[in-house]
DNA sequence: CACCGATGTATCTATGCGGACACAACGTCG
DNA sequence: CGACGTTGTGTCCGCATAGATACATCGGTG
């Protein structure tokens, strides 16, 4: 089976901070010295020291290093370094979300465009989606399952009162609960749209296979990519 | 300024396909031969050929290579290779979404947990969010702006009829239109939640600075990360 | 049957990354 | 003032990546 992965990076100017660098900073924070961090990571001191100097020359102070003294000295992280780690963690978490959550794909052609937003005619009907300028018809539209909202058919909000631009009526085709999270398949015009719900929401809506539901998602959560292939995917 | 980036990968078994490999396959598809692809990419033929063989030995047939013949032979991609490219494109598009879209962050502590879902007490109130087992209080909760739905205060759907678990009343604090897409800042209890809307939705809801709105998002679209830092971020 | 243009394959080399190691510098403490 | 545990620096080596080159192979075509 094919698995989606990534490597996160943070760029500051022309410097690029990778997961390795963050790991390095964390080790320094944990141990209080470069040499102990090197030992803890099983890497050479020389390399760590050089990398720290290189990073600091590119993106400014990250550590306060001190040599000599009662304890022989040591290295501590600056606030800037802590912030960097925090930012990296958030990015990593978000990207992990993307690779974890599954996605529904619909083929179609772009009919209307205004700026970055376009309307794509698909098998389940028109989808308002984010269509970058560079993408060309035919396209595939991807919808993240964690962006799909389910409502009871009659409970769907008035179109003039919400910012959700895509709404489709369908039937629940599959329910798969796991660890407080429920994956739901919604069959719309013979095609499946997948949604991710909390178990609580699922019981609250009282969803079961065969029930009618209204699935909706924001245009900004749907993304179109040019469809280069002739064959189907997955 | 610091920019978020990534490198996408697809793993099949123990093989990992990178952007470079996809570029390679695309060049083969475009030119019809390994040697022409190598020239087109400005890389050595030997390396390309080796990489193709390596990839195929790990993940199965990707090309039909033929030598001899009127044209001397050539190389074409199999459907499997096309599918691989398509999958990669989708992943790339989604990840790009993450790094492009901005995110609101709230600090808080986890109070209730059931499976992967937890309740985080924050400055804007309780947030139901995805809290991986490994994450510990205190946490920071990140909410992608493209997952935030805005409604008119009175138009918000009945809580029993929707799968959105987080809903907050606030006031529009900023509106920034660009290229058919509107970034909106919503002030909730003195803290800002950012939302991404289509220009159309924005005019439909008739949003302007100072207007009251109801902002909501799904629990599965909010992610918590342990808050290691003492300092604030960004 | 030689030619051509492509694919296979082997070998050599340049480059960069990172570990290993040696040694200097530093500042407090006994 | 010497010991100690750090940081700072330079040099060497092993390894992996990838270009350069050379040569064999294949199969139509003139």
UniProtKB/TrEMBL annotation, chains A, B:
InterPro entries: LysR_HTH_N, Mo/tungstate-bd_C_term_dom, Molybdate_resp_trans_reg, Mop_domain, Transp-assoc_OB_typ1, WH-like_DNA-bd_sf, WH_DNA-bd_sf. Gene3D superfamilies: 2.40.50.100, Winged helix-like DNA-binding domain superfamily/Winged helix DNA-binding domain. Keywords: Coiled coil, Molybdenum. Residues 38-65 form a coiled coil. It comes from the Archaea. It is a peripheral membrane protein. Residues 161-226 form the Mop domain. It comes from Natronocalculus amylovorans. This is TOBE domain-containing protein. GO terms for molecular function: DNA-binding transcription factor activity. One of its GO terms (biological process) is molybdate ion transport. It is found in: Cell membrane. SUPFAM superfamilies: MOP-like (SSF50331), Winged helix' DNA-binding domain (SSF46785). Residues 152-172 are annotated as: Disordered. One of its GO terms (cellular component) is plasma membrane.
